[in-house]
Amino acid sequence: MKIIILGAGQVGGSLAENLANEANDITVIDNDGVRLRELQDRLDIRTVQGRGSYPTVLRQAGAEDADMLIAVTNSDETNMVACQVAFSLFRTPSKISRVRANAYLARKELFGENGFPVDVLISPEHLVTQHITRLIEYPGALQVLEFSNGLVRLVAIRATEGGPLVGHELSYLRTHMPRIDTRVAAIFRKDRPIIPQGDTVIEDGDEVFFIAGTDHIRSVMSELQPLEKPYKRIFICGGGNIGQRLAYSLENRYQVKLLEQDRDRCVMLSENLRKTIVLEGNAANKDILLEENIESTDVFCAVTNDDEANIMASLLAKRLGARKVLTLINNPDYVDLIQGGEIDVAISPQQTTIGSLLTHVRKGDVVNVHALRRGAAEAIEAIAHGDHRSSRVVGKRLDEIKLPQGTTIGAIVRHNEVLIAHDHLRVQPDDHVVLFLIDKSRIREVEKLFQVGLTFF
Fold this sequence. Notes:
Layout: E1 2-6, H1 10-20, E2 25-30, H2 33-42, E3 46-49, H3 55-60, E4 68-71, H4 76-90, E5 94-98, H5 102-105, E6 120-122, H6 124-137, E7 141-147, E8 152-158, H7 171-176, E9 182-189, E10 192-194, E11 207-213, H8 217-224, E12 233-237, H9 241-250, E13 255-260, H10 263-272, E14 277-280, H11 286-291, E15 299-302, H12 307-319, E16 324-328, H13 332-338, E17 345-347, H14 349-359, E18 366-372, E19 377-383, E20 407-414, E21 417-420, E22 432-437, H15 443-449
Helix pairs in contact: 1-14, 6-9, 6-14
């Protein structure tokens, strides 16, 4: 596939790396020549320096025969205009735009048939808010991913001594919980992946990925670590787009406090949020946190635009007694350094956004993609089409499907019914199949499995 990416920042660069490794024809456009040279030194891609919304620059990048334009610069206006130019002058078939400002997102009539010709809108702030909200809904989870409109979820959790399954073989889970069906898709032990078998023993400290119907998530989590009490009190540091969205999504179910430095922004937040207590001040100020009883806070969320400020505020809050700390980290190099210590969960907006973008790039009928383990692993939801003659999966039992090494099928959703994967299960047309890939370099092989042969037509 020939893809033009506008923007060589964290999202654009990470996306180019993901797609270039999958044998796509990638061209990246950016004003920053230094950043483009860095990418070209590492990746087999073309680069064009210039403003991505200019027709001459798009033509130079090969827009005349491009299959897709992905506009992820830091400017909403540049992204939107680039989509318009690509449509009007080059008839680019697929156009994806990152739009951050709620002033645009709130007006749906700006996009589509009578507005900017954007086929897919990506809002990082919205995606990150959803991600954090799910972590708060499931105390103790490291990652919670949805498939099939929330019917089934993939959860990452740290196995902890005291969980009934820790120290036992996985087969013990079925004996201990006969009425709950789940599947452990993968285990990471000291950063090494393990394909789970029935005799695999769960050890303290393992990062376990399991799939289950949404109604059974808490029960399975309780097998892997002592179940935490539900959260009640949430403290948000940073009143930007993410902080405001997060407070709005949580304030009807939790006691929410939001701390913001800018006085004018505080006034605006207090006028737009109904139940959230808005405070003016700096989260690095120990006295403010103590005055607001940080020691009784269940979750401290640092979501400013400054990584260092988020890290320092989170460390301070944790040492002052906050029960759980979630920290937004834009620099991916920081994520591995800090997660799992005093900071419980490091959240990468880039990885959250890239998963959503990859959904629209994958071949075959792929409806959901989630990047895992800082992009090394991947979970996807693909729809099985065709029949036993035209499809490599339809009509076959799961143990008959030749999956790429390191790939497991976790669940099938059929007519809104969740079927956890077992060898005897047979794939039917239009099944939604949820797969976990330890090695995402195998994604092309997985895509081929779900592509329909010519005999189907």
